[in-house]
């Protein structure tokens, strides 16, 4: 079973220490958020009740709920339906883990992830939703802070994943300079720092 973030990579992004070596596609939810589902759960199968459509258009309206509530609620409802997760336990764990970064998320990112999980098929990768950073900022990946992070990642021999850099796009403009402070840390500490949206 896959186990966000807040995302960052949420994330997604905020939930665990960075692995010792680069791990492709360590989505916020996939890597970091404990879904509360049994560890021996069978691979998810498509129930045929959802569409593959994902909302891409940026929506900057304030979410109907606080960011952590909105995003974790959407993610955990999906894991409950598709992975037989304990939705209440998943939601509590998720909100605790993304508590530091959630207030820094762009409305467009939260709205996009929520809309995505509402239509995501059960046989799909949850990273489809949590790593759709272009929905947060259409300039992605050509965002100066993201590019600076990628350059630092190269210097660090890819010890943290590129999704950690991508997660900067999910942050409001005012929070991005704080995230860049993570790049001054030792390579092994940068990923976790980015997951929290800054030191």
Structural class: mainly alpha
| H/I helix tally | 9
Cα separation of the termini: 31 Å
- Written as H for each helix and E for each strand, in order along the chain, the element string is HHHHHHHHH
Low-confidence spans: pLDDT under 50, at least 5 residues?
1-55
Mean pLDDT across all amino acids: 78
Strand content: under 5%
What does the main sheet amount to?
none
Please give the domain count.
1
Q: What is the number of beta strands?
A: 0
Radius of gyration: 15 Å
Considering DSSP H and I runs of 4 or more, what fraction of the residues is helical? 40-55%
Large-scale geometry: globular
Which descriptors apply to this entry?
9 helices; 0% strand; globular; disordered N terminus
Commentary on this structure:
By secondary structure, this protein is mainly alpha-helical. It has one domain (28-195). It has nine helices and no strands. It has helices at residues 28-32, 67-83, 87-97, 107-119, 127-130, 144-155, 162-166, 176-180, 187-195. It is globular. The model is unreliable at 1-55 (pLDDT under 50).
SSE blueprint:
Elements: H1 28-32, H2 67-83, H3 87-97, H4 107-119, H5 127-130, H6 144-155, H7 162-166, H8 176-180, H9 187-195
Helix pairs in contact: 2-3, 2-4
């Amino acid at each position: 079973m896959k186990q966000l973030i807040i995302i960052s990579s949420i994330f997604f992004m905020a939930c665990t220490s960075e692995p010792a070596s680069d791990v492709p596609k360590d989505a916020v939810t996939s890597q970091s958020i404990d879904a509360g589902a049994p560890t021996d759960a069978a691979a998810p199968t498509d129930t045929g009740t959802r569409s593959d459509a994902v909302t891409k258009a940026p929506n900057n309206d304030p979410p109907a709920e606080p960011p952590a509530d909105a995003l974790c609620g959407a993610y955990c409802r999906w894991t409950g339906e598709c992975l037989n997760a304990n939705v209440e336990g998943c939601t509590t764990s998720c909100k605790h883990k993304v508590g530091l970064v959630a207030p820094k998320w762009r409305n467009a990112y939260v709205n996009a992830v929520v809309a995505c999980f509402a239509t995501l098929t059960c046989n799909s990768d949850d990273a489809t939703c949590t790593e759709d950073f272009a929905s947060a900022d259409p300039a992605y990946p050509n965002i100066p802070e993201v590019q600076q992070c990628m350059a630092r990642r190269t210097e660090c021999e890819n010890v943290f994943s590129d999704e950690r850099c991508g997660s900067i796009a999910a942050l409001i403009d005012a929070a991005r300079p704080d995230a860049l402070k993570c790049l001054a840390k030792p390579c092994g500490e940068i990923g976790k720092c980015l997951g929290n949206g800054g030191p």
